[in-house]
Amino acid sequence: MLDERYIDDVFTAFSKKLEEIGSPLPSVSLIAEEDKDPYKVLVSTLISLRTKDEVTAEASRRLFAIAPDINTLSSLDPETIAETIKPAGFYKRKGIQLRVIAEIIINDYNGIVPDDMEELLALPGVGMKTASLVLNLGYGVDAICVDCHVHQIVNRLGWVCTKTPEETERKLREILPRRFWIPINDLFVRYGQKVCKPVSPFCSQCPEKEACPKTGVTRMR
Ligand code: SF4
After folding, report:
1. Does residue 143 register a pLDDT over 90?
2. Where are the domains of the chain?
3. Residue 54 dihedral angles phi and psi, to the nearest 5°
4. Which protein residues touch ligand 1 with a CB less than 6 Å away?
5. What is the number of the ligand 1 atom nearest to the C-alpha of 203?
6. Which CATH homologous superfamily contains domain 37-138?
């Protein structure tokens, strides 16, 4: 298990740095903060895939204005959903996908978004990240949502030595104290977007620059 005080220090240092440079919460988290509705977390996370944060927030709000719940979403045709979330990435494909998911949830789950990892992963187009965020932000379940930023940063920090986000998620469950499971995603995603960038991180500006082994970093600024 990682030392709790050390993790606390890293979380505090990263948060302060992000405050300094003015990094807003990701749009899905903002939506979840306004309304802890698993339906809205699921839909906005699916919209967010391959889509800029600002676009996700606006596209999600437009869709929730005409489809505030899963029943109304299932009554919309895929073209209307697509036009409403445009210019989100792959909006046409997402229009079809959201409609199919709405139908499955109504028919198989009585209109309630599943709160089970396996059931969520069985929905078309739902991967580990989306399922974890639904559990995490929608149901308040202690799931660790590991996307490419979380995976890369914890490897650079030397907390894990893993090849895939799935492996990282399993390892973090063993070594990360539980109270950090939910906040790690928001914090590390923003940190990865602003400071610990995938290619050439800004190590010179990072409060962890002395302690971090920078595992796998070949170029830095
Ligand atoms: S020192 Fe560099 S590699 Fe390590 S966490 Fe900071 S930005 Fe990332």
Report:
1. no
2. 4-23+143-205, 37-138
3. -65, -40
4. 153, 156-157, 195-196, 201-203, 206, 208-209, 212, 214, 217
5. 2
6. Hypothetical protein; domain 2 (1.10.340.30)
Of the candidates 61, 60, 32, which has an alpha carbon nearest to the alpha carbon of residue 136?
32
Q: Output phi, psi for 151, to 5 deg.
A: -55, -50
Q: What are the tens digits of pLDDT across the range 169-205?
A: 999 999 999 999 988 988 999 999 999 999 999 999 9
Among the residues of 110-181, which ranges form H helices? 117-121, 128-133, 148-156, 165-175
Q: Domain 4-23+143-205's class?
A: mainly alpha
Residue 118, class by beta-carbon neighbours within 10 Å (0-12 exposed, 13-18 middle, 19+ buried)?
A: exposed
Question: Alpha-carbon distance 103 to 19, whole Å?
Answer: 41
Distance CA 41, CA 47 (A): 10
Q: Which pTM was predicted?
A: 0.76
Question: Whose CA is closest to atom 3 on ligand 1?
Answer: 214
Out of 157, 193, 197, 215, mutate this one to test ligand 1's pocket (max ligand atoms within 8 Å of CB): namely 157
CA of 215 to the centre of ligand 1 (A): 9
Alpha carbon separation from 176 to 138, 173, 191 (Å, rounded): 21, 6, 18
Indicate the length of the chain as a whole number.
221
Report the C-alpha gap between 201 and 65 in whole angstroms. 39
Phi first, then psi, for residue 209 (nearest 5°) are -60, -30
